[in-house]
Amino acid sequence: MYESLSEPLRVFLDGLTAIHGRDDARIGFPHPPRQDGRYNGAFLAEHPLVRIHPETGRRSLFLSPGFIRYIPTLRPGESDTLLSFLIEELAGRIDLQARFHWTAHSLAVWDNRATAHWGPVDDPYFSNERIVRRTTVDPDLALGPDGFQSRQILGESFYAYR
Fold first, then answer.
1. In terms of CB atoms within 10 Å, which end of the chain has fewer, N or C?
2. DSSP state of 11
């Protein structure tokens, strides 16, 4: 999606960061304790809005609609408008989407460093049981075009091992 945006917009986005967060307990959906004993509460992190893929060098938007909250260097109305535009662009562009149809014994794999996803594991209203095992191979912290690297503000880092 990043490459399909206008050059002036890409230049503007390259220098921005965004605050991502989650606090399910605050809205009445506390998570049960994790089996590994790690923290399972609220988290807050600052990420570059545009990240550089560590292997390909390609730029992509770090846009997670369920977690992204605001752009700290913009006024609230500017931040809301820009994020709404980007999220609507992402959701509305069929040419940017891949559809996966679950069947028995299905396995889906994607590179989370360059993919926004929405699936049964994300949807609180999904009625059928899914067993999901998430794994992360060789995690890295997101790095923006301006050299900004993701930083944790509240809670534990997503990755258990560094």
1. C
2. H
Instruction: Specify the pairing of strand 68-70 against strand 59-61.
Output: unpaired
| pTM score of the predicted model | 0.77
Distance CA 81, CA 100 (A): 30
Given a contact cutoff of 8 angstroms between Cβ atoms, the answer to whether 11 and 17 are in contact is: no
Closest to 1 in 3D by CA, of 65, 54, 44, 74:
65
The label of the residue with tokens 């990420």 reads 47
Q: How many CB atoms lie within 10 A of CB 97?
A: 11
Nearest-CA neighbor of 63 among 86, 29, 36, 80? 86
User: Which residues, given as ranges, of the chain have pLDDT below 70?
Assistant: 23-32, 34, 37-41, 116-139, 157-162
CA 129 to chain centre: 24
Name the β-bridge partners of 45: 20, 152
**Residue 44, pLDDT score:** 85
Q: What is the rounded distance in angstroms from the CA atom of residue 153 to the CA atom of residue 114?
A: 23
What is the pLDDT, as a whole number, of residue 160? 46
Write down the residue that tokens 């509240």 correspond to.
154
